[in-house]
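Before the break, one more example. Copy the sequence into your notebook; we will annotate it together after we see the structure.
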Amino acid sequence: LQRVVRRLYWSARRLTWLSRRLPRAGYQLLRRAAGFSWKISLGDGPPSEAQYRLGPDIAAAGPRAEAVLAASSRVDSAVGELTEVVIVDEPEAAEGISAGRRIAIVVLSQSDPRASVPAFDAERLNPVGWATDHRGHAVALGTPDHLPRTKRVRRTVSIDARSTCRRAHHVVDTAAYHTDAPARAGALAALAAVGAVVHIADKDAELHHCLGSELYGLMADETILTAGQHQREAFSVAMRRAALRDHSLRARVRQLLAPTGLCGPALPTVSILLATRRPDRVTAAIDAVASQTYPRFELMLALHGDGFDRPGIDRRLLGLDRPARVLEVPEHLPLGTVLNEAASASSGSLLTKFDDDDMYGPEHLWDLVLTHEYSQAPLVGKGAEFVYLENSDITLHRWRGAGERYVTTQSIAGGALMITRPCFDAVMGWRPIPRSVDQALIADVVGGGHRVYRTHGMGYVLIRHGGGHTWKAEDEYFLAQAHETRAGCDFAFAGVA
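Here is what the structure looks like once it is written out:
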């Protein structure tokens, strides 16, 4: 028996050794052959350039301008016949470029400081595969001698070793590791995009302007140094959201083209489908929609049955400051049919579903839109990781570490999914059934050969109030799955302001 155990042990060690030395492409083929969904996203090593269009034909004239959009293969270094926009470092470089032609000139030295930061390709640098577990230690992006004594760490890592950086508890950085503030901001934003938790060890006003107040404030927060597992994940989620929103290729082109009037990669319009048969919850549901910071959405409110205060609802929608439409649907129709009618009346390229009894953080729509962009999956969503049990008065966190994955199981919450309209049409929408409509939709998407991606669970809380749920489950079912619990209704614990 000992001989068999020893042989198995050394066979396993050899397989591990071989797998670490297989070329990445070969490893990817093996994973696919074994039936696993796999996507290389960290971008360790030499960068590859993004191939997708960014809008008008752009030329970059000057070293800084070239660095800003170096992640794209669609940006030329010379002005051609089809060039519509030229990005230059200084005003002097623009002289003579547009003589006799209508070419928009963007001068980086006269633009928002973020416009000078090298952008990253979100389809390559993203949090796919991010795990809550970490190695328990911090790393620095250079020699510890440049760090304050109170923040020195023993381990150093290359700026390109992003997989190592995101497995560390946090990454410590200082200006001495970079050539200038824009280059530093670009490197740190790329680290944040893959999920690494970054801490800035020095105060830098120029870096503040380059990163933006949100991302800089997160990275300068001293509580990162002692963050527990839950708080570390909250930092990672907030940083990756800010980085993906402000420093991706598409975001950078939108910033550069804003003064020119030319159209870059537009943010998609989201249609929020909100079906309710509970008059007492309509106001709170509209408030959750109104709290969203994403700038392009419309609300399709389907009143399922009678007893609603239609004049009061109309008055509340006037203050929404977003397009909204109310549909009055007979009570006898099944929920799937109600949602399909709301979808038919909508105009957004992305459809998402809000439940009237769940809680949504203000960044919820942004999370789903950004997830759709970097995952390129036609259906994305959050799992019901955070649950408030009204009868037990407990907020709990379950399924920790199950996010940022392509999934084939029905592990996405129905109240937190988003689907593209072409995919929705391809699977013929929701089935005309009274319950489990969302899980049936996910099953149809997977069965149709489409990819499904589950992002982090922050910013969404499933509320169990004990009555009127289409999914029946006792409190004990959720408590048995909990990794962590909080007494009372603790929405901040779940990232809901």
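Confidence is low (pLDDT under 50) at residues 16-40. The chain is about 30% helix and 20% strand. Try to locate both features in your own notes.
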